[in-house]
Amino acid sequence: MANSKENGSKIYLYGITAVAVIGGLLFGYDTAVISGAEQALQRFFIAGIGEQEYTEGVHGFVVSSALVGCIIGGIISGFMAQRLGRKISLIVSSVLFFLSALGSYMPEFLFRSDFSFYEPKDSTNTLKWAFILYRILGGIGVGLASAICPMYIAEVSPAEIRGKLVSCNQFAIIFGQLVVYAVNAVIRSNLGNTEQEIKERMITVGWRRMFVSEAVPAALFGILLLFVPKTPRFLVMKNNEEKAVKVLTRINGERKANEILTEIKDTIEEKKEKIFAYGVLVIVVGALLSFFQQAVGINVVLYYAKRIFESIIKNNDENDENNAMIRTVIMGIVNVLFTLVAIFTVEKLGRRPLLMAGSVGMAIGMAVLSITFFMDSVGIVAFFSIIIYTASFMVSWGPICWVLISEIFPNTIRSNAVAIAVAVQWTCNLIVSSTFPTLIKILGDGGAYAIYAFFSVLSLVFVFFWVPETKGKSLEDMGDLWRSKMNKNKKEAELPL
User: Fold this and answer.
1) Cα–Cα distance for residue pair 225/146, rounded to 1 Å
2) In 118-268, at which residue ranges do the beta strands (DSSP E only) sit?
3) Among 19, 26, 103, 442, which residue carries the largest CB count within 10 Å?
């Protein structure tokens, strides 16, 4: 115990970090659960509403409706983190995840008293909107978790391992996607003995079970959050230094805790600073990190993976659908492995080198993929170009973007600045993923992938000229960093031409 008081407890730190990253797992789980259920959901609504009314466009909105909630959650995350705190905001997100899981499982809950799974045609349209409402609720939970989980982890972590621990959140997101793929597969396989029976039961109960499966990790997240502390920085902001010191001592040891407390107090004094108190540049850099993370096209590859792989192996003698699924699983495994690489190298190599290396890899992967389509020679080369692209993203822009968003903003504006960056990210996600089918139709596969290659190159230029290195810096150092940049820009602007 004496040693723990002197040096802090890594077990305690890793324990509360593990609880926080369940929010990342739910982030991945909620965004990916729709992939296994969407076709059965479409047939369910067509059977009730009719194909003429339930068009592809309507289905697209039903499938992507959670992203609307993600944008809302991102926008309000700053306000909630500031007023309620990081811990309470995460508890709210866990409740939203739980309600979304139950509501998506049984959208008729508010509209029928018999809880029947079989709906008359005149009520199915109402259920469609009820389902959308519940998915938006889950999306708000995702938006909150995507902003506040990295913020929470960053604010409890020592500077020397902060990047590694925040990167664990990205690993949890990718792992959550793999978990739900496996859960969906198990649910589907247990619906019947024949393919026809499975398809029929998917329409009635299969898609419902997939959505309700999220209730288990959501409930676990909410319960475990009751046992983690509020972040020291939020406690100081609320004039509760005694509790802040206890948390800091338990994590860092007594001597280091007092040093960190002094730094926090020095940067918290002006806690009512305006969003541009450190200049416009810091907000622009945060927003552009989010923009480029999406503009390079990663969620096009993740959301439309099966479709993309089917287009690569078309006209072969193989079973296209089965082979596409196998390639999707391979890509998922690669994503997990390279996210682990990022976790174990971010503190050694730094943020900027990883981002720039990732931009180069993504540009090469997308450029080669584009060329294979233009030359009509898709095949194994196209497949490996996608693997190179996703591996490059997962070792760089996937986790490192979240690390930087959680740490580059000064304490006094962090909540609101993170909210802006996250809202930009989810808005760009919605735009990029929803425009992909249109781009394919207008420009062809090669043209669409060429656009993502172009943005990958631009992301390299952006990082090289604008993004600072934050490796080893404390969160309290961020104010000095951006003030110095702001003063330097002012002096340069005042120089005579």
Assistant:
1) 16
2) none
3) 26
Are 284 and 214 contained in the same domain? no
Question: Among 166, 198, 228, where does a domain finish?
Answer: 228
Tokens describing residue 20:
């926080």
Q: Tell me, what CATH number does 474's domain have? A: 1.20.1250.20
How do residues 33-56 score in pLDDT, each as one tens digit?
887 787 788 888 888 777 678 877
For residues 486 and 393, give the distance between their C-alpha atoms in angstroms, rounded to a whole number: 31
Contacts of 28 by beta carbon, 8 Å cutoff, 6+ apart: 172, 173, 174, 175, 176, 177, 179, 180
φ and ψ at 228, to 5 degrees?
-95, 155
Query: pLDDT: is 86 or 478 the higher one?
Result: 86
Whether residue 222 is found in the same domain as residue 364:
no
Segment of 80-84, 310-314, 350-354 carrying the highest mean pLDDT: 350-354
Instruction: Judge if 168 and 277 occupy the same domain.
Output: no
Q: Is the same domain home to 280 and 195? A: no
| Predicted confidence band of residue 325 (pLDDT cuts 50, 70, 90) | low
- The token pair at 48 is 């009730």
Shared domain for 93 and 207, answered yes or no, is yes
Residues 221 and 345 occupy one common structural domain: no
Close Cβ partners of 264 (under 8 Å, ≥ 6 residues apart):
232, 233, 236, 244, 411, 476
Structural domain count, the chain: 2
pLDDT in tens, 418-473: 889 988 988 898 888 777 877 887 888 889 999 999 999 999 999 999 999 888 78
Confidence of residue 246 (pLDDT cuts 50, 70, 90): very high
CA distance 135 to 63: 9
Helix 121-156 vs helix 10-49: angle between axes, to the nearest 10 degrees? 160
| Residue 176, domain member (yes or no) | yes
Same domain for 35 and 173, yes or no, is yes
Q: Which of 73, 476, 470, 458 is nearest to 291 (CA)?
A: 458
281 and 216 together in one domain: no
265 lies in a domain?
no
Averaged pLDDT score across all residues of the chain: 84
Domain boundary among 197, 228, 259: 228
For 282-348, the DSSP string reads HHHHHHHHHHHHHHT-HHHHHHTHHHHHHHHHTTSSS-HHHHHHHHHHHHHHHHHHHHHHHHHHHHH
Q: Note down the domain range covering 181.
A: 7-228
**Cα 428 to the center of its chain, rounded Å:** 12
Give the separation between CA 335 and CA 37, rounded to whole angstroms: 22
Q: Identify the pLDDT of residue 357.
A: 96
pTM here is: 0.76
**Is there a contact between 346 and 403 (Cβ–Cβ < 8 Å)?**
yes
Q: Is residue 134 part of a domain?
A: yes
